[in-house]
User: What shape does this take?
Amino acid sequence: MRKNHYIIGLLVFCCSLNLAMAQAEPKPVAPIKTIASLDVARYQGTWYEIAKFPNWFQRKCIADTNATYKIKEDGNVSVTNRCTFEGGGKGEAIGTARQIGAPTSPILEVRFAPDWLAFLPMVWGDYWVIDIDPEYQLAAVSDPGRKYLWILSRTKTVEPSKYQALLGRLVNDNGFSLEQLSLTPQN
Assistant: This one.
């Protein structure tokens, strides 16, 4: 009889442990979805950062973050990022983006390292356009691992209903958790 209690207790313990481990394991998230196609000519111009996941390379930027994209003669895109630092100083980083795949691919890579380092894969970062409105006025950009997220707009402010609709799509269509999303102050 004692042996049966021991075996039953051991089974209950093992089942409880398995259940706890299953609950502790992160649920698999579906791969991130990009938009169907990107018209780079329409995408070029200035975009203002409305919100982002905080990241190490923008740690000094406290406000007025924007990016200007322009198609270069070689078909790649020049990228000029600007922001305001604490104390009012301005910062600027100049880089290059390239489309991966078809001419309408929403998957790009961007680098801010010097041209002579362009052959190194590690200097290129993922820049995936995952949401954009039909008028090319509001967009979301991320990477395949959802580590980074930027919400960009052609204007410094966004209509609240459009912003909330975009957030809903990020959660529902792309599995984002938005707890770390940080609004970017505009001056």
Notes: Helices lie at 2-24, 40-43, 160-174.
